[in-house]
Amino acid sequence: MDFLKDPLKLAADWLIGLMTGWGMPEGVATGVAAFLGIFVLIAILMVIDIFLVWLERKVVARFQDRIGPNRLGPFGLIQPFADIIKLLIKEDITPANADKVVYNLAPMLSMMSVLILWAIIPLAPNILGVDLNVAALYIVATGAIGTLSIIMAGWSSNNKFALLGAFRQVAVMVSFEIPMVASLLIPTILSGSMGMNAITRAQYPLPFFILSPLAALIFLIAAIAELGRAPFDMGEAESELISGYNVEYSGMKFGMFYAGELLHAFTFGGFWGILFFGGYGLFGLEKLPALAFLDNVYINMLTLIVKAVIGYWIIMWVKYTMMRIRIDHMLAFNWKFLTPLSFALLIVTALVHALAKDASPWVYGLSMFLSNLVLGWIVVEFLRRYSRAEREKVEGPAKPAMEAAGH
Amino acid sequence: MTTAQIIFLVVAAVTLASAFMVVTTRNLIHAALWLVATLFGVAVTYALLDAGFLAVVQVVVYIGAIAILFIFAVMLTRKEMRDQGPQLNSGWWISALLAVLTFGGLVGMLWGWRGMDTLASEMPVGFDSINALGDALISPNAFVLPFEVASVLLLAALVGAVYVAFNPRSGDSRK
Amino acid sequence: MTTETLIWLIPLPPALAFFLIVLFTNKNKALSHTVGVGAAVLSWLASMVVFFRALSVEHLGEHPFVSSVNWLPTGDTWFRIGVAIDPLGAAVLFFVSITIFMIFLYSVGYHNFGQPAGDHDRKGLPPHGATVTDEHGHQHVVPSVEPMYSRFFAFLGLFAFGMYTLVVSDNLLTLFVGWEIMGLCSYLLIGFWYGKPSARAAAIKAFMTTRIGDVFMLLGIGLLYSLTGTLNFREIFGNEELMHTLATPGTTLFGLSLAGLIALLLFIGTVGKSAQWPLHVWLPDAMEGPTPVSAMIHAATMVSAGVYAVIRMFPLLSLDHNTMTVVAFIGTFTAIFAATIAVAQNDIKRVLAYSTISQLGFMIAALGIGAYVAAAFHLVTHAFFKALLFLGSGSVIHGMEHGVLHTGNHSVDPQDMFNMGGLRKKMPITFWTFLIGGFALSGFPLLTAGFWSKDEILADAWANGHLAVFITLATAAFLTAFYTMRQITLTFLGEPRTKEAEHAQETPWTMTVPLMVLSVFAIGYGWVGIPEDFPLLGGLLPSWFHEFVGGTLAEHPEVIPFNPVPLTVSLVVALGGLLLGWLYYRNVNSAKEDFFQIPLLKNKYHFDEAYQVVFIGPVIWLSEVFTKWADQGVIDGILHFFGPATGGIGAFIRNKIDLPIINEFIGDGLAAVTQETGRTLRPIQTGRIQQYMMLSLVILAVVGALLYFMLGAGL
Amino acid sequence: MIPLSWYLIFAAGLFSLGLFGVLARRNAVAILLGVELMLNAVNINLAAFWRYGNVADMTGQVFAIIVFAVAAAEVAVGLALVISVYRSRNTVVADEIDMLKW
Description:
heterotetramer; B: Four Helix Bundle (Hemerythrin (Met), subunit A); 2 domains; 7 helices; 0% strand; D: mainly alpha; elongated
């Protein structure tokens, strides 16, 4: 039954036992086992990534009233493999005046920044790389590496479009890091920990998207900006910058950027699920005596992956329905709206937490939800006034409907 | 030699080598990237010291913000980017001498110190350094005042930097 | 609103009116007089409320309305200022508020409100009239509106404020403040037409003369305060021990008691304010002001204030017999002295001015013989009928000016009585009211207020055995009746002596209404003071005034028993004077025919000239001498010596010390050294940050090494 | 296990390298890079002293964080100055920015 409860430990123990049996020192054996675990994880991720390409193409086709890939295999499932093969056999071009080392390092860093995120994702209570006690910050830290990879790519290509794209993308990413940190601190306050497992556990019985819907929303927006996907795709902006920071890349190097982006989106979908939708938990269903069979490692993993796919789908949904926002509007949106809002939310949450933490969970949850609601209402009201004022600035003062009707 | 010692030595060597590249490399973008490497090394050092929070903050603040800022600054002062002239000034050998002297002096001073060979005590079981750090930062009995002063300093620096770097001409032309 | 609060508020509206008019409504004549008259109405209403509430209080003298606040810290205690209304205050408030209100109203008509602006009127001069063209194309000259109309009401408001403050004060200091505000306003109002040199001179004269009295009064106040530590009337008079100490005779100069000295000093203030001899000279000249001002100053307020102050201080005054004698003498003398001058005056207002002086003398004399209720009674009745007379004379002059404008002959003086005559047909209301006022002044028996009050003074003098006072006052009363009848006869009776008098016109309602109102009081007010045991009339009406005002003092003054002698005398002098005056002057048609144009009287006993020679001349001479010798000679000489001397010393210091030593050696030398040092050290400052840092590190290394090797041995 | 001295010597080396950078580099941005190295060396010492001293006493970590804040502020202002100077003088060579002299 161990295999059902803690398969990772079982496998590791088996491997280490096997290797020590071959005469390896235990330390080395542990290291090799850990390396193998990482290797397997990455391999699985890469396969998932391939299907993400298919998923993305299929979904965008449906959004755009097309069919999407449908020739190769059932539902076009073989299509992404064909894409990979095409990318692999393409000529690998490095521009003449490019800074070669940096140029080649950038896509690797880009992919790496996504992959190391998986070190802290708990697929199940005991299926995770490391239960880091600063995991929430870790998410931001890997974002910093992604930022670095983009600026490296943009600069080393020796192409003005690439550099411009990198500049814009980096400005956006650095800016949206702030509301992201603030929104990450809200699960931290609610759960009292930055660890992913602790945050997941704290969401029984009430997931955090009920306690703090605003934080979930802010995190989603900041994540999309961090990903550089539409409507915040400043770095690529096909119509303006050709393809932004990765314009000079071709073949598999481009593929790494591309796959990295898709995987990144999927990963953030997963984080959204972990931080606000109860992670591998089934919203408390598995705690019911009648459904105890759901409290199972595989069900947990499945739950999280489904949540991640749903998150990914929402990110896609946003991407393919929204128009690109102008860079100055975007930065203004961040600095003048999202950042103050996230700080206000942080303050409100901290206050409510300090006041209501000793009350019953339901009172606590209700007061959190209501405080979010009130703050949200204030924000909407403020936005309404502001947009009306802006409209009047352009169109002149609005006439009351009655007057216009001639009464 | 234990594994930890090997890891430390490797990290220290890489870090110092990167630092050396930072101060000697011609290309400033490369220097900034080497700085990133150095900072990574320092972050790993923090991790080795069980200061996980510092390690992550090092990455967030230094690599995510400061290094990026450096790269931006280098690009904004682009005339120097392909400067093929000497990157060190004429008195560089005095500087080198002084640096070596400093290093020698520091090590020499440390040599006679009794605490040099102290080994780290085990981390207490159940001790959460992040909780302790958070308490220390906002506890009135500990460091809330320096913490607040630091935040005010950051704000002042932010405003000052915006003011200093703001170009009134470009600001006008946008309107 | 409590009565005390109301009393506080009484002086306020005129003061507010003053500021409002000066600051805001100055440009708008209608608004200005609305504000001014409105303020007078408000104060009048408040005064009436206070008066009638005071009437309803039993024994008001013992329990007056009082209210005070801390004002000035004096060591451990506070100097308190406040308001108080006792029976005397209430009676005075009654006539003051009515006359002030009437005068405000009268001013509207007197300054020709509603008439066009003058053709060539200038500020500071009386209006000269305006030319208008009627619908038939005829050109008329009509009176023109006063150019400084608003200013007049502002001044009047301030004046009223001063008077009300004086009346409601419970202490000498605020009384003095009100007193001085009035002094300022009388200066401003007498010199209202400052374009006329005579008005300027009169204003200065009035101000300077009253100032002499005020200085003594201030001395008296200071002395009183230093002795008693308070200036509150009730506190001083209610403290029997203190009064007894003050009354100890012979402690100061001239053998006066302290009380006597204080009373005398305060009395000198009154002499100035109420224009008693020898400080009477300013009052006739004050006729230069507009006629409402004359009424205001000489009937209603300022001169009354002097008498009021003495009545207020009567308990103190009565402590010393010698002071009483002085007061009685001055009052009596002034009464007869002014009356004789009045006989010889031709200016309608001047006659009234001397008449005022004379009547004030009556009051002062009454106080001097202890008849203080009689003095207060005469004060009130006199205020009414004298205001009536002044306003009536103003009305006459106004009518005459109309005639002057009609004929265009500006050489005719509209104030000269010999230019009038027969005005009773032209100005019937003015005539009848003037007649009432004149008869009241003369003491026409039984009907008029003047008879009752004057009779009471004479009766007091007779009853208390002051025979000299009695005879003198009787003579003065006779003269009063005589010159009053002379005035009436010359002005109103007979036929017009000039064309201007023929064309005189009755004045507008704003002027005649006050006349009528005041004439009611000029008759009726006497009836509240008919003695109880007067034959036939006594007892028909209660002798209210005596009861009421008499209650002000702690000991109620006794009622004098009725005596036929003074009654007979006053009947004879009044009726005789009137009869003689009519008989003689109905035949006199010009000044030359007048027997009483005696130069000595005409020239007012040469007092002005005497003062010119004795006081003013020497002062001017002294000032000139001082300017020439002391200022130009001594002080300028000293200055002229110091100038070159300082220059010489300065030149020496500069040439021998400053230039060679300070400048060249110390100054330039230091600069040169500094410059040279700077030039030598300058290359160190390269402006290169890294060199600085390197240098400081080298120094740090050297110092560290030195420290290490020198101290390290000991470590 | 690693003795404290290793960390201290490592920090001293980093500090000296940073010092050399500050003193010898011509480019003002590079000077700031050197400053960052020195600050990091200090931070290593702070963290090491925390770990090798009383772990419950968080002074070392707290000061490390304050040094982070100071470093961020210093870089922001320093780079702003460099950019400002570059705009007006068209150079970032420290030796050429020597207006402030005799």
